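Dear colleagues,

As part of the handover before I leave the project, I'm documenting each prediction I ran so the next person doesn't have to rerun anything. This entry is a single chain, and its sequence is reproduced below.
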Amino acid sequence: QVQLVESGGGLVQAGASLRLSCAASRRTFSSYAMGWFRQAPGKEREFVAGPNWGNDNYAESVKGRFTISRDHAKNTLYLQMNSLKPDDTAVYYCAADRGVTITSTPQYWGQGTQVTVSS
């Protein structure tokens, strides 16, 4: 069973930084493509960042501000978010798909972590 546990959300002011973490089992981390999605109030869930055949893709709205990274020793996926904007306010989800590419409809989801950016 694939379990993804996010942490690191919170309330920050515009311009601040946050780092989200997603912990998984060793088997999941080595066998699945893991990425980040978010859902803002009243909006559809959207892709934020994730792997696509060895390269990390980013949503246009976060390019240059967000960075996805992995710690294989800790089986943890990160999302470093800099220069946060109020539009980044959302519940952020870690997701996983078997293979090397995160799809638009991942098979597995974490419980989500709230990020709120005040102006």
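The chain is about 5% helix and 50% strand. The radius of gyration is 13 Å.

All the best with the project,
I.
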